[in-house]
Amino acid sequence: MLSQACFAGFSGLCILIDPRYLLESNEGGLSNYGTRPGTVAFYTVAFVSCAALLWRAAHRLPSSVPSRRATAAGLGTVALLLLGVLASTYPYKLAPALDQLHLAVSVLLFVVEMALVTWLMLVVDRSLRRSGAFALALAGFAVSAASTLGVVHLLLVGEATMDAGFAAATVIVCSSPEQPTDGSEPRAA
Q1: Does position 110 have pLDDT exceeding 60, yes or no?
Q2: What is the structure's pLDDT at 189?
Q3: Which of 44-53, 123-132, 160-169 has the lowest mean pLDDT?
Q4: How many CA within 13 A on the CB side of residue 134?
């Protein structure tokens, strides 16, 4: 999906411009790029383009996607949360309460994304088990959670890994032919 390519491309550009947050000991995550003059525009484009295109994709899912309405609702929720994270990024370094709000919206986004990937794998397309998308998302989710709790300092790495797993899962589900939910091979059209 184009939404995921835009997010990865513009986020990657931020990292190329200023790679210091990649392994920063202050648990620097992607949100740092939304507060830096040299990267704020690319950061904004990453989130706005991803959210807009994800919203569009949610409302144009092929009829072959099982549980299409629920899948669309999940994708639409992620799109709205992306905008929430973006809006809370700009002021989050101004006051502790704004930082906590940003953290809460960001954590909610990751929980919803992980829940959606899990649901996509269990209900919509069981072939995701073999794709590695779920494992990638789960690994990124675990690293991000551990970073948020202060156990490790790899928040940006965890975020990128989670995003890659989420992207893979959504691309597989939204672009694959009709998939049975019982784990058997797809039927020929």
Answers
A1: yes
A2: 28
A3: 123-132
A4: 17
Domain ranges of the chain: 2-175
Give the residue among 56, 114, 50 at the shortest CA–CA distance from 85.
50
User: What's residue 180's pLDDT?
Assistant: 45
Cβ-count burial 141-172 (b if 16+ within 10 Å, e if not):
bebbbebbeeebebbbbbbbbbbbbbbbbbbb
- Cα–Cα distance, 68 to 95 (Å, whole number): 41
- Kindly list the distances between the CA atom of residue 103 and the CA atoms of 61, 115, 151, 160, in Å, as whole numbers in the listed order: 31, 18, 16, 17
Can you list the positions of beta strands (E) in the chain?
Answer: none
Q: What is the pLDDT of residues 41-72, one digit of tens each?
A: 999 999 999 999 999 999 998 888 889 999 99
Residue 121 and residue 85: Cα distance in Å, rounded? 25
Q: How far is CA 32 from the centre of its chain?
A: 17
What are the helix and strand counts (H, E) for the chain? 7, 0
pTM of the model: 0.88
